[in-house]
Amino acid sequence: MKVELKHYTPLTVTDQAISKCWDKECDPNNPNTEKINRVANKFKHKSTIEHLVYSFEIKGISRAVLQELARHRIASYSVKSTRYTLKELKDEEPFNDYNNELDFKRASKYLVWTGNHNVDITVFFMLEDLRSLVKEGISNDIVKYALPESYKTELMWTINARSLQNFLELRLDKSALWEIQNLAKEIYKSLPEDHKFLFEEIWNKKVKLKD
Questions:
Q1: Helix, strand, or coil here: 165?
Q2: Domain 2-78+152-208's class?
């Protein structure tokens, strides 16, 4: 899994939004983080941080996690089409032996491993079945119905700070799926350092204190 922050809104935008509400002046070049934290987190005037938007490139998550990620509705998703993903299988040699290091490494390009031997070996041979279907020349729009949930995908994901707080609150929780917990941790770590104060309380409660 790889997460990279591609773009984000500067804090000055939210500082100006807060100042607009109270008809106050603010320094357009020097955001007042104490004020932002007080208004957004302490006073819960969270509409002011909806002006902060983050765009992430996310690679190597399973389709199972993509499905869970899509439950966070106030966000934008641009996902790599399975038409192109499946084309990559066409030139692969057969995946014959789960215990063969080379076969396992090649399969790792396409699959997220769970660590459960029975599940992972089953998915390994599902990948071979999928490769065989692609080689038969069946339309990718039909073949994709045979995709296992562990099949890797990638996307661009854009979300505002208020929705991101909600995402981290839910997905850093120990009851969340292990893979989306890992994704949430990587997303938090990739945030700009000067923005992390907006999310630190959640991080400390769900991760730091737990550890």
A1: helix
A2: alpha beta
Which pLDDT tens digit goes with each residue over 9-20? 999 999 999 999
Q: Tell me if residue 171 is catalytic.
A: yes
Place of tokens 């004020």: 35
**Where in the sequence of the chain do the CATH 3.30.1360.170 domains occur?**
2-78+152-208
Cβ atoms within 10 Å of 134's Cβ, excluding its own? 20
Crossing angle of the two packed helices 178-190 and 161-171, in degrees rounded to 10: 140
**C-alpha to C-alpha distance for 131 and 143, rounded to whole angstroms:** 9
Amino acid at site 131: R
pLDDT of residue 211: 57
Residue 208: predicted pLDDT: 75
Per the CB < 8 A criterion, the answer to whether 111 and 122 are in contact is no
The Cα 47–Cα 21 span in angstroms is 11
Closest CA to 157 of 83, 84, 66, 85: 66
Q: Considering 63, 131, 162, 171, which one is annotated as catalytic?
A: 171
Tell me which of 186 and 25 has the higher pLDDT: 186
Token pair, residue 158, equals: 């854009």
Looking at the DSSP bridge assignments, the partners of residue 191 are none
